[in-house]
Amino acid sequence: MKKFLVMMVIGIFILAGCDINLNTGGNNSENDENSKKSNKAKATSKMKDFKIGQVVNADGVDVRVTKVEFINNYDEYSAPENGKAIRVYMKFKNNNDDQVLIDSTDFSMKVDNENYQEWFGSDDMNDGFSHQLNKGNTASGYITYDVPDSDEYALEMDASPNFESVKARWKIKKQDIKDGATGSGSQTTAPVETEKEPDESTDDSDDSEDTESEDTESEDTPYTADMYNDLVDEYNGLTDGEKMDHVDHDVLEIEYTQLEERIEALYEKQIEEEDKALEEELKEQDEAYDKEMEEIDKQYEEDMKDLEDEDDTETDDSTADDSETTEEKAE
């Protein structure tokens, strides 16, 4: 009976040790995953406000609104019905294991809580997007909306990229919106080809230089100081080294993009360090668990030996008693 009770106690102790170790490992894994995600703003099923330039984790997909501009390149026949055409540029990255769909219909534009439709007065075939993104893939796109003049606009997202329904809102102030190209005719992404007159080579050369200058300005559309400073704050929060200062002027697209790339590199480095730390922590836990099990096995063997010695002693005592009883009966 004693032997059975000791065996039960030892078994319960072993199971308890395993459970503690597994729970600890699970919690550490969850904490590590939460640590990775905490560096990015997270969209949930409830509507939350985010900033232009901020990386938003939307059900495993990074969403970033990079810039906003007014489109003024239209004629009287294609002019927006509500008076303004506003274009929103976005970037995406899929961090899920499964493929996801990101579509322009997941977004809407509101002014004073009223929805406004997309503007189709442009010949730009790239306006709008529908991206099927595999794990680790990135994409970008833009949407143009027909809106009235207002001091503030609100871009809203209501999507289910992977499994969860997520919502987000970006409030866009009028002073943060840049003016796009101005002129008659429809907006296009491809350069317009013009025929050169043979007797006006000098003028054509000047026109070509002007066109190249306009193209360069279009490619380097400046970002506002506030938009760039949001990136600066994000960068400073990720590095322990030298901090960047805020700017008080607009910046070119190449400057904005370069800082975005530096931030992305810091995120990747941080994730690598966290993965390495997690591996070391799990290794230490495994070693501690193995050591604990060895001690339990050793204690079990000692207890079993004690039980065997105790059984031998009880057997000897019983044999002695039987011998005495036999002798007494013989007398």
Short characterization:
This protein is α+β, with helices and mostly antiparallel strands. It has helices spanning 2-38, 201-219, 225-238, 253-330, and strands spanning 41-42, 49-50, 56-58, 61-73, 84-94, 100-103, 107-111, 114-116, 130-133, 138-147, 152-159, 166-173, 178-183.
Hey, roughly how much beta strand do the residues contain?
15-25%
Low-confidence stretches: 183-220
Find the count of extended strands (DSSP E, 2+ residues).
Answer: 13
- Range of helix content: 40-55%
What's the end-to-end separation, in Å? 36 Å
Tally of DSSP helical segments:
4
Helix-and-strand structural type: alpha+beta
Rg: 35 Å
Shape, per Cα inertia axes: elongated
Order of helices and strands: HEEEEEEEEEEEEEHHH
Largest sheet: 6 strands, mixed
Mean pLDDT: 77
Account of the 3D structure:
With 331 residues, this protein is α+β, with helices and mostly antiparallel strands. The protein is 45% helix and 24% strand. The chain contains four helices and 13 strands. The strands form three sheets. Strands 1, 3, 4, 5, 10 and 13 form a six-stranded mixed β-sheet that branches. It has a five-stranded mixed β-sheet with strand order 2-12-11-7-8, with no helix packed on it. Strand 11 (152-159) and strand 12 form a beta hairpin. Helix 1 (2-38) runs antiparallel to helix 4 and helix 3 runs parallel beside helix 4. The chain starts with a helix and ends with a helix.
